Amino acid sequence: MTAKDMAAVKAAAQAQVDAEYTLSETLGMKRKAVDPMGAAYKRAAVDAEVEIDESYFFAINYEKYNMTFRNNAIVEYATERINRSAGDIVKAFLDFGRDKMKRLDEEESPSASPIHIGNIIPSEVLARHDIALPPDPVEPNRRPSPQEIVKAYIMLLRTDQAGFIRNADERGANQYAVNFAKLRDTMKRRIFEGLLREKYGVATCRLVRILLDKGKLDEGQLTKLAMLPAKETREKLGLLNQAGVVEIQEIPKTADRAPGRTFYLWYVPLDKCYHELLVETYRAIGNLQQRKREELKIRNRLLDKLNREDVMNDMSLLGPADQEELKLMEKVLLRIETSKKRLDEMIMILRDF
């Protein structure tokens, strides 16, 4: 089989997969019958009104839900890291390829050109002028065009260390795509470093970041790069080693593996850290759920009152003390649910992204 035949087979297989994927989303849906002579016929043709075929069964598409949550998390990250317009540009890329995204483990989004993105972006986004562009040497007073603004943001997102956008020249000239593979690592590492900073401090987090960037280093190299005293570096490495964040790789100079003739290199087992962080997050959600049950348990008397029909119809029947207790309970439960939501977002990035 020649390379041309192989390419034709792959194209046919991909077309079959795309057809089956599209069919699975429309199966069980049929167009609603509309009178072709009626006034609403044209509107129905545009809106593509459909009705459910009751002979079919439906199920939740969890993959689509996860892809939606992932896309929203990426847009929020771009907005937080750069600015709101950068988040809108990333959102335009994701919206452009939404129907072509099939799996959560894809390496990149469907590609798009700056022209495509410029046509999707609302005009008010490009009118913000929140990016500085070099003046035109011929017409210094000329405002940059929408296409120039879009290209500038794409270049900014492409060169950012987070890796939002990558070139997709293999799909055609001037094509770009959202780099899911890079963003997976970036967003997981962002969560990991943030928790380290909160738990151990900025200096300790700096040691871990240096090891992640440089690879395996000995204690002397770490001390110089982190600009910390040797004693403090040793103490922090010992603390991180106890927590399982860093480990030691022994490299003996001789066959007898004598300690005096052995290099000891520190490194971060990142996949192991992510797994341990995921387990800790599960445990934290379990603790929050247990706390919620306890908060409700100690207010059984108040809950019994709230379930009474007369109180449900008229909350003013509750006494002042019960109303204050109700406000406190709602405040506590709101905090618990907010914490659970944040932890659930962390689980999505660590496990599902």
Low-pLDDT stretches are 39-47
The secondary structure category is mainly alpha
Specify Rg, calculated over alpha carbons.
28 Å
Domain module count: 3
Beta-strand portion reads 5-15%
Alpha plus pi helix count: 15
Characterize the biggest β-sheet: 2 strands, antiparallel
Q: Name the CATH class of the largest domain.
A: Mainly Alpha
By CATH's scheme, which homologous superfamily of the largest domain applies?
Answer: Winged helix-like DNA-binding domain superfamily/Winged helix DNA-binding domain
Organism: Syncephalastrum racemosum
GO molecular function: single-stranded DNA binding
Domain RNA polymerase III Rpc82 C -terminal: 19-185
GO biological process, one term: DNA-templated transcription
Task: Give me a quick take on this structure.
The protein is mainly alpha-helical. The chain has helices at about 5-25, 40-45, 60-80, 85-95, 115-120, 125, 145-160, 180-200, 200-215, 220-225, 230-240, 270-295, 300-305, 310-315, 320-350; strands at about 30, 50, 165, 175-180, 245-250, 260-265.
Description of the molecule:
The chain is mainly alpha-helical. It folds into three domains: 117 residues, Arc Repressor Mutant, subunit A; 79 residues, Arc Repressor Mutant, subunit A, CATH 1.10.10; 80 residues. It contains 15 helices and six strands. It has a two-stranded antiparallel sheet. A two-stranded antiparallel sheet has the order 3-4. It has a two-stranded antiparallel sheet with strand order 5-6. GO terms for molecular function: single-stranded DNA binding. Belongs to the RNA polymerase beta chain family. It is found in: Nucleus.
